[in-house]
Amino acid sequence: AFTLLAAALPLQRHARLLDLPAVPPRYDREHRSLADRGITQHLFTELGDPSRGTRILETRWSAFSRTDLVETRTEVGDLDYRLVYTDGTSPTPMIRWNGDPRSLGPVAQSFPLCDWAFAVAPLRDREQGEGAVLSIGPGGGLDALLALRHAAARFEGAEIDPSIPALVRDHGDFNGALYDRPHVHVVVADGRAYAREKAARGERYALIFSALTKTTATGSGGMLVESYVHTVEAARDYLEALEETGLFVWVVDHELLAARFFATALAALGREGLEPAAACRRLAVLADPATKGPYKFALAVFRSAPPSERTRAMEEAAAQRGLSVLWLPGSARGARLFRDVAEGRLGLDGFVRHFRNAELGGADVSPCSDDRPFVLSSRPGLPPVFPQLAGLALALAAGFVGLAWRWGGADRMRGSDLRFLVYFLALGVGFMLVEIPTAQKLILPLGYPTLALAVILFSLLLGGGLGSFYSQRFEGDRLRRWAVIATTAVTLLVFGYRPVLDRLHDGLVGTGVWTRSLAASALLLPLGFFLGSPFPSGLRLFAASRPRQVPLAWGLNGVASVVGSLAAATGGKLFGFDAVLAAGAVLYAFASLLLVIGVPRRRGDGRTGAPSRPSEGDGEPCGIRTRDPQLKRLVLYRLS
């Protein structure tokens, strides 16, 4: 492989076979850009169009993303603005402002759908101390400008990407030092976790606003992207953080997302005992038919049903801004589909089935829970790439088994030894089915995806190293019994952890990041301890009878880990992460059963069940803990 790569380098230098085009085509025959087709990011498409005059002013990196501040000649009304891109997608505007709230009229005219949400919210004079706004993902500051225009008592923003608030503050000469104003408070935090913490302290908001909040690039909507800020449970959290007359508003860029959020709101209000028809009295859906930007649809959910005079004022505010009312309680206008739900002719299930119609592309707009948080993917089933990758990984696994079975030479494996390979397969898949859902479930209590990943990797690797070290004290049948105990303990802990992980978020609300991290780490260390024992114990048992096959068993376990990671993602999308955790626990129980009934017992020297004859090569008995240099290197590499 290295020889072929070296030979290809001169050809690549002159022919540039593996490279991105300097100026990519903007659109295909159906007028879809490369970004619309999911081929590349939106920023790359913009940079490839000379007419837009797009150029990157500044780039920053963090553990969360790459963040670019971009200058462009694209016009939005009469505004002078820059765009802040996160990983090349989901741009948020940073608007030039002179610091005078009376000059914000053009901002409201350029973003009428967003301005409507602030106009109909019960914002009061700042001196009364009521009418606060919480923005989930304030980005470059559009939400804060609208809050200042409508004289909100205070504006709070929870931005999960640390680079964006820093960019806004560092370019204060352009945006009027927006994030440094007295009534504007923007912090780096997960928006949903921030709302829960504030509600636990008794603080309430007149408006919770979320516009185009996405956790990462979604391309054409076919990727599996988790979004815990848009689930049914998230909607319940926002309702708890509202004043009695408050509302929260989602602004989205696609009609399928608007339909999913409508279904999500119905499901959230249904947990209060409201039927869909009654829930519609607390919902509003609007669209901006004239916009060419992404701010196209808005869904508003009220803490309590607004009186008729307030809904009339909302309708008038929409008409003044040229917005289309798709649904508003008491309005004579509206889309038939939403009216059918409001008048009881169509329930939540019927609403979802309507979009599954093949004529509408067979979209899935069903509500998403925290157990299945793939809100931004409307594709039923799985993206095509997942079955393809799974098939490739399974083919590799089958190839490893064939190598071990057919070309073992004098040390060719027998049918009883094949059970050991199945054991390593079960461990490889099962470990990923336990690790990935656990990391997903820790995102909510810890508040940050990168922090959740760091905590779970630290805890499981530390616990796994201790468990592997502890297993070295056992030999022979005692080693086998310890491996059975460890695999059984993993099964029991996983089933016991499932309800604990779901409630961990509630128990840690209001605590500091160090407290949350230490609590999660203490919870995971016992699981990591028992996860670290079955693999090295199995290798030592296997090496007692088949020392030459240890590398193949190692490779089989590695390929099985790839299969397990794909199975965790696909299982989470189709069945939920609780089901994936349960499947991981069952696989460890299966591995325990293989150790009990499937491993042949041999007479030997009492150390690891090894035969009394010496192994070929170093003259030492097989299976001694550290005297087999190949096995020692493999185990040390695994632990590192």
Helical segment tally? 23
Strand content: 5-15%
Determine the structural class based on helices, strands and strand pairing.
alpha/beta
Strand order of the largest sheet: 7-6-5-8-9-11-10-12
Molecular shape: globular
Terminal CA distance: 26 Å
Query: Whole-number average pLDDT?
Result: 79
Which bin fits the share of residues in helices?
Answer: 40-55%
- Uncertain stretches: 20-35, 215-224, 602-626
Describe the main β-sheet briefly: 8 strands, mixed
What is the CA-based Rg, rounded? 29 Å
Q: Please provide the count of β strands.
A: 12
Report on the structure:
The model is unreliable at 20-35, 215-224 and 602-626 (pLDDT under 50). It is built from 23 helices and twelve strands. Helix 15 runs antiparallel to helix 21 (550-574), helix 16 (415-446) packs antiparallel against helix 17 and helix 21 (550-574) runs antiparallel to helix 22 (577-597). Strands 7-6-5-8-9-11-10-12 form an eight-stranded mixed β-sheet, with helices on both faces. A four-stranded antiparallel β-sheet has the order 1-2-3-4. The chain is globular. It has helices at residues 2-15, 42-47, 105-110, 112-120, 142-149, 163-170, 172-175, 191-200, 232-240, 255-270, 276-279, 308-320, 336-342, 348-355, 385-406, 415-446, 449-471, 476-507, 513-531, 534-545, 550-574, 577-597, 629-639; strands at residues 55-61, 66-71, 81-86, 89-95, 133-136, 155-159, 184-188, 205-211, 242-252, 283-287, 297-302, 324-327. With 640 residues, it is α/β, with parallel strands linked by helices.
